[in-house]
């Protein structure tokens, strides 16, 4: 097998591709011959050494990768009823940047026929995050107005689609004009281009009474304004802090980390109670053991993809050997949809 290994945190040069013996499944495990692995911004943060759950569960050296799609090519003694050749999606938490992965059978899901392998590998991390944020935490309701930051991106695009599917009015914010059409195509009713002026003023014009839900992975750069845009009752869902990191430089800057950490708002429980505005947060990688959340989310999502209620985002493929280019591209902030690594032709 081939896999990507990060021996210690650093820049793109730390993404080393190595050959290793094929892993053997035991007991209830199955082995997936990987056709595509999803790339997430969190993988870049793991490479930089700033992803706490990666240190907590695995440490370095580490193979990043939360998700793959492929076919079953070997099974353990307690998984003999899983047919060789079955097309699956597997959630991996870590280890997905590889040509073969071994996972417990509880972590595989039948690939919807409507999706290619590349598309299937783009689903779990983004859509489970969006699903838990919107349905598990914020409990989006028909007719609500929601604001989605980075609406043309991986999680943002999934939030836009799920928000529209739930009957909400979805307003997206994007960082570049070229992303407007993509965000619209993924379910946004209106899109604000933050590069062309005051996005907060525009958000107020688009929903003068405020927003029931705002979904924010920027951190310090937008969190305060996101909270102020809530109506009552309103919910701010926080799921990332990517403005703490430089665009496209590959390595964090300690000065920037410290500055943005200090600038990150601390929300006042008295003010929240008095105005019926709440702050919610999530990190999917710490929810991995919560099988009910994982399975309910995947079940709902995969049925929706099979029925055509959700569509795969635009996909950009990179060879597994070219993983550094995928990270470099994602960190520019210019990509749309999802990037995937293709292990085998
Ligand atoms: N909490 C969780 O469980 C969880 C799970 C998955 C992802 N996440 C987080 O969700 C966020 C989105 O992840 P993703 O994989 O879907 O990525 P993505 O949205 O496809 O790409 C990142 C986007 O963020 C924006 N951005 C803002 N500051 C940036 C910076 N300094 N560098 C690069 N991009 C920047 C850019 O879009 P615009 O310029 O258009 O805004 C960029 O296209 C990340 O912060 C990630 O860590 C959290």
UniProtKB/TrEMBL annotation:
GO MF entries: mRNA 3'-UTR AU-rich region binding; NADPH binding; quinone reductase (NADPH) activity; zinc ion binding
Q: Which Pfam families match?
A: ADH_N, ADH_zinc_N_2
Q: Which Gene3D superfamilies match?
A: Medium-chain alcohol dehydrogenases, catalytic domain, NAD(P)-binding Rossmann-like Domain
Write the record's keywords in alphabetical order, separated by commas: NADP, Oxidoreductase
State the protein's name.
Answer: Alcohol dehydrogenase
Domain named Enoyl reductase (ER): which ranges?
A: 10-341
Q: Which SMART domains match?
A: PKS_ER
Source species of the chain? Sandaracinus amylolyticus
Q: Enumerate the PANTHER family for this protein.
A: QUINONE OXIDOREDUCTASE PIG3-RELATED, QUINONE OXIDOREDUCTASE-RELATED
Q: Which GO terms describe its cellular component?
A: cytosol
